Amino acid sequence: MSAIPHAIIVGPGRVGLSLGYAMVRHDAVSALTVCGRRPEPPSHPLFVQGLARYEFGLMRPDPDTAAVFLAVPDHVLPELAHALAGHGKAPEGCVAFHLSGALSTDVLAPLNAQSYGVGALHPLQAIAHSVSGADRIPGSYLAVTGGPEAVAVARRIAAALDSPILTVPAARRPAYHAAAVMASNFLPPLVDAACRILERAGIPFDEGLPALAPLIRGTLDNIEEHGIAESLTGPITRGDAETVALHLRALEGSDRVLYSVLGREVARLAAGRAPEEALQEILDLLDAEGR
What we know:
Elements: E1 6-10, H1 14-25, E2 32-36, H2 45-48, E3 53-56, E4 65-70, H3 77-85, E5 95-98, H4 109-112, E6 117-123, H5 132-136, E7 142-146, H6 148-161, E8 165-167, H7 173-184, H8 187-200, H9 205-226, H10 241-250, H11 253-270, H12 276-290
Parallel strand pairs: 1-2, 1-4, 2-3, 4-5, 5-6, 7-8
Antiparallel strand pairs: 6-7
C-alpha cells in the first residue's frame, strides 16, 4: 500500500510523537506535521533530524492531508474536536482519529459534521517514552474503530508498520481498554509488591527487580509459547496447600490480600490440573485470608 501523502498529529506527547516517529521511519506517511501548544517544538528526533514540521497552534489541514490524529488526553478531545471543526470542511477523503483506548468515535461528531471520516486508533502497547515508544509500536496490534474511510486509512498505516488490527466496536472500547490496562498498568504494582516481599526475605528492594526480571520474562515467554493455563507453575497449580499456608503466614496486610485474590485466580485456571480436594483446601485458606 502507498504512503499517506500528509498526516497531522495534534499533541506532541508520548503517544503522538511515538506514533509519528514510527510512521515516518516505516514510510507510512510522506509528510508529517505536528501541532503543539508551545511556540517551540520539543527536543525529539522528528524535529532535530528534520523528519517532521512543527506548527504552533492548531492548523487548518492542507488539501493533501489524508489523516489527522488527535493525540491529547481524553478530557481535551471534545474541545479539540470543536476547535478543528471550526476550521471548516475536511479536505477530500481526510480522516480524523483520536488515540484514546476507551472512548468511542462519538466525541468526534463535530468533525464528522464537517465531512471528516472519523475513527479511533489505539496502539496496544505500553508507551513510556516518546522515542522508545516508536520502536514498540511496529508489530503491535492497533485497536481500530470507525467507518469504512477510517478503517481503510488505518489499514494502510498498519500495513506499513507490520501491525495487525483489532476491530473493536465503538460501544465495547471501554472493555477493550480495561483489558489493556489490566495487562499493562497492573503489572508494575504487582512487581512492586513482589519486591517488597523480597525485602522481608532480606533482599534489598533495589535488587528485587533485577532478580525478578528474568522470571517475569520467562513467564511471558511461556504464556506465548504454551498458553495461559499451561504456563502455570508453583504450589497452587500442584495442589500444595502446605506451602500456600506458609506463604500466607509470611505475609501481612495488603500483600497477603493481594496474594489471596490472585491466588484464587490461579486456582481457577489450575482446575483440572491439580487434585480437586487439594485445590479446595487452598481456596479455603485463601478465602479466609482474603476477607
